[in-house]
């Protein structure tokens, strides 16, 4: 079996100039952490070959000895991508939602008749637009923050229920995201230069739930408590898992409800949430849906007693899976560093 594992920043995506220059910074660190973790898990499976692309500007040791085909320009990246996707038994895409990047790579894979181990373009098209996602969820009765959509040149409204969070409709991570305390702060921001979403700030615990999807089945993995910067920019710093049994149940149930309202997906999907102060969950909201593997994978694989990458393959085939988790606490950073401590595990749920 062959698996094509593509990660945009390490795999030559910026050779096209979409994000400008050689890859660097926190997004590269997160991308590297995800692709190395997944590739390492696939590499130990018998009779499985994992194929990677590597931006030729990056050092080979970035892949920790895993073989990767170097690409030198946008044309060679697309050609190698389409070739490997067509030849693979499964293709996994990790790319930013901004500027249509993930959707474009999804289209490349589908035009190559690839077998995507991840959401198809119909799912990705909705999930990469935070406003469109919220509208679909709201229509299905899923709680989302009260919000308004802003077009280029719009000012932030005076009659909004501040405090609020301003974020790009198609942003990745916390790029260009900021806390807006009141209208005075909003007025200082002037007009927006890209399509944005202004949403009501919800106090509570930032959390994420990763879900493995297959034919007629969705398996919610243990909820992660996210570590977010306190500087008003909501930078993702990592996370901790497991959370308490009560929080875990609330988070998983809401994540599964959210997925039910979206097109059918295969593979790995991440849902970001705020778990509010009411223990009954009345203040819980869905913030966004990530149609790809997320950084939480590095923490989940450390807690899982089995091989989480193999579990993804089994779940995507619609076969029954058995998951077991260590009685530990896992703390991880956005760049893939993991610390494991003793601690109880509250259990999981599947639907």
What is the gist of this entry?
With 351 residues, the chain is of the alpha+beta class. 28% of the residues lie in helices and 26% in strands.
CATH superfamily of the largest domain: ATP-grasp fold, B domain
Class from secondary-structure proportions: alpha+beta
CATH architecture name of the largest domain: 2-Layer Sandwich
Return the domain count: 3
Straight-line N-to-C gap: 28 Å
Shape: globular
> How many DSSP H or I helices?
9
Please give the CATH class of the largest domain.
Alpha Beta
Low-confidence segments, ≥5 residues, pLDDT <50? 345-351
Q: Give a count of the beta strands, DSSP E runs of length 2 or more.
A: 17
Radius of gyration: 20 Å
Largest sheet, in brief, is: 9 strands, antiparallel
Measured by DSSP, the beta-strand proportion falls in 25-35%
């Amino acid at each position: 079996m062959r698996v094509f594992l593509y990660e945009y920043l390490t795999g030559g995506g910026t050779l096209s100039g979409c994000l400008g220059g050689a890859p660097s910074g926190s997004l590269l660190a997160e991308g590297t952490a995800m692709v190395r973790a997944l590739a390492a898990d696939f590499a130990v499976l018998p009779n499985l070959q994992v194929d990677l692309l590597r931006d030729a500007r990056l050092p080979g040791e970035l892949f920790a000895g895993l073989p990767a085909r170097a690409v030198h320009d946008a044309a060679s990246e697309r050609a190698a991508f389409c070739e490997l996707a067509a030849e693979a038994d499964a293709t996994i895409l990790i790319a930013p939602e901004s500027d249509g990047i993930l959707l474009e790579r999804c289209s490349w894979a589908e035009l190559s008749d690839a077998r995507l181990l991840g959401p198809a373009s119909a799912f990705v098209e909705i999930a990469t637009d935070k406003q469109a996602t919220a509208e679909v969820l709201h229509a299905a009765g899923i709680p989302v923050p009260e919000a308004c959509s802003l077009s280029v040149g719009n000012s932030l409204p005076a009659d909004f229920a501040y405090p609020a969070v301003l974020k790009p409709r198609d942003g990745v991570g916390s790029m260009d995201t900021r806390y807006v305390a009141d209208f005075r702060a909003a007025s200082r921001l002037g007009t927006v230069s890209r399509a944005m979403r202004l949403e009501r700030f919800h106090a509570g615990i930032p959390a994420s739930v990763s879900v493995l999807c297959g034919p007629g089945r969705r398996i919610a993995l243990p909820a992660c408590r996210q570590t977010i910067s306190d500087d008003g920019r909501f930078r993702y710093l990592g996370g901790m898992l497991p959370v308490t049994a009560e929080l875990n149940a609330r988070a998983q149930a809401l994540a599964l409800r959210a997925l039910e309202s979206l097109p059918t997906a295969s593979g790995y999907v991440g849902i970001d949430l705020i778990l509010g102060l009411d223990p009954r969950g009345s203040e819980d909201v869905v913030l966004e849906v990530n149609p790809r593997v997320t950084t939480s994978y590095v923490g989940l694989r450390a807690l899982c007693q089995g091989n989480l990458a193999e579990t993804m393959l089994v779940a995507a085939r619609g076969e029954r899976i058995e998951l077991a988790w260590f009685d530990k606490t896992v703390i991880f950073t956005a760049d893939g560093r993991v610390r494991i401590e003793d601690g109880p595990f509250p259990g999981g749920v599947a639907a």
